[in-house]
Amino acid sequence: MAKAPARPTAPITDSPPADPLKSNRERPADPSPYDASKEELLKFYEDMLLIRRFEEKAGQLYGLGLIGGFCHLYIGQEAVAVGLQSALTDKDSVITGYRDHGHMLLCGIPPKDVMAELTGRQAGISKGKGGSMHMFSVEHKFYGGHGIVGAQVSLGAGLAFSHKYANDGGVTLAYFGDGAANQGQVYEAFNMAELWKLPIIFVIENNQYAMGTSVNRASSEDQLYRRGESFRIPGLQIDGMDVLASRGAAEEALAWVRAGKGPIILEMKTYRYRGHSMSDPAKYRSRDEVQAVRDKSDPIEHVKKLLMDQHGTKEDELKAIEQAIRRAVNEAADFAESTPEPEPAELYTDVLVEKY
User: Do the Cβ atoms of 150 and 162 come closer than 8 Å?
Assistant: First the structure.
């Protein structure tokens, strides 16, 4: 058989390679750290410290057997929720997974109501029937507290659809973790949110270890802010240990979404000091690693240093804030221990929606 003629090849030249293709999609600007006043910094410090002390007390009550079931603490991650939620308005909605106590406090729910829910008491925000993972308050626009990994993301898209349908100017903040970032329903929600240009900020709280496996081992693409690219959803990677970086990211993301440009992803690089839950001994990382993060990047100590070095805040002023927060947390714990449990008849309430 005769051979087919060789295909001509392009000549080899010494010209430099072509520039890589650049996206023609509009993207949000890279956010700058928020320029906070002394009063705002003090508020950030107070909010983060409240979450830290509240979670420490919850851990103590769990150890005493006063909190049952699962209990996932937010210690170390405080700058994420404080920075982001400080930028919200009363029109906006928040939904998250089961590491939810801090987010609830920031929605304005009193510590007593949250602690009473943790201990399964009638006075709890969900009448003692939700516990740590299933708290909820329509009044405060906090929609859970969800125990199914990633389930809150598609529900968050529904909340955002509600905001758009009602044209009320609200935005949904939907938190999920690095582990949940591999759930299929997350990407179904991404697709719908971008198609309908829903007003939603998808917040990936990347605390590095999900339930106990490093994100580098569990995710083929561990730069999670890129996960929306195939859906044309822009993403930003933010230092989630810095409350000013978090607030700056919130400002940029909210401006993008409120302008009708659709969803955005914020990957908040953060770190939890405790295990995944109170039952997790966290043997997948060393104590030295945890301590190194505490020493270098603790979000509360960072703000404390800014207050003292840049604003001349006195140690006594910060101690007074600390003492007031400890009192409030101890009062919440005392209340939660002393208030009654739900009546047995409560088993049959709130099962079905009886009125639309």
Answer: no
